Amino acid sequence: MKNIVVLSGAGMSAESGLQTFRDANGLWEGHDVLEVASPIGWQQNKSLVLDFYNKRRAQLLKVQPNKGHYDLVLLENKFKVNIVTQNVDDLHERAGSSHVLHLHGELFKVRSTKNPSFIYDWKTALNLGDCGKDKAQLRPHIVWFGEDVPMFNVAIETVQDADALIIIGTSMQVYPAANLVYYIKNNIPVYFIDPKPSINKNSFPNLKIIAENASTGVEKVVTELIG
């Protein structure tokens, strides 16, 4: 085994104090997700969207990686490890993981509304009137509902090269990210870590379900893989 790929979702960061994307009512911090995470929502109320992400950004500054994040770093002592995350936080990077691909964007980055390739690091409040070098309003560097996922093809190539797959804290119900599991090679080990696993035990030939939080479940998988 040479290459391990990790797919992580909101449950990976929940133990650090970051709330999961949506609650049982489909709301995100009391908002309909389309109000704060869609091009239509942006056009209808830019101030609301900016305020929403400013609060998320401020919250992220106050939290730290949890044990699950740090345990994944240990795998890099023995294997090539690529993390494909649905999370927009930087907790994997802060813990020390070297190769992290963000499918849905990054909270500590913003980009031009005119030129999407103009991307800037940003850890403070983003306000109306804040512009990039092209003089266009900046927006959160987040993939909203209805937008393309620009890194998806890269994620497919990453998953196809995996000798083992670890899935952590995701319902695997958000698309297209949920489709990534169907690009793995036949018969590789698949570990699914989630306290409420939403996967059938017969989904993959070599599937092992660990019905635990990231902080304890990741440690068990890492221990098994490192031997």
Could you characterize what this model shows?
- There is one protein chain.
- This protein is an alpha/beta fold.
- It is built from eight helices and eleven strands.
- The chain has two domains: 1-18 and 65-104 and 147-227, 3-Layer(aba) Sandwich (Rossmann fold), CATH 3.40.50.1220; 20-62 and 109-142, SIR2/SIRT2 'Small Domain' (2-Layer Sandwich), CATH 3.30.1600.10.
- Strands 5-4-1-9-10-11 form a six-stranded parallel β-sheet, with helices on both faces. A three-stranded antiparallel β-sheet has the order 7-6-8, covered by helices on one side.
- Helix 6 links the parallel strand 4 (80-85) and strand 5.
- The radius of gyration is 18 Å and the shape is elongated.
The topology string of helices and strands comes to EHEEHHHHEHEEEEHEEEH
Strand content: 15-25%
Query: What is the 3D form?
Result: elongated
Total number of domains: 2
Q: Order of strands across the widest beta sheet?
A: 5-4-1-9-10-11
Q: How many helices does DSSP assign?
A: 8
Instruction: List how many beta strands DSSP finds.
Output: 11
N- to C-terminal distance = 12 Å
CATH architecture field of the largest domain: 3-Layer(aba) Sandwich
Q: Return the structural class.
A: alpha/beta
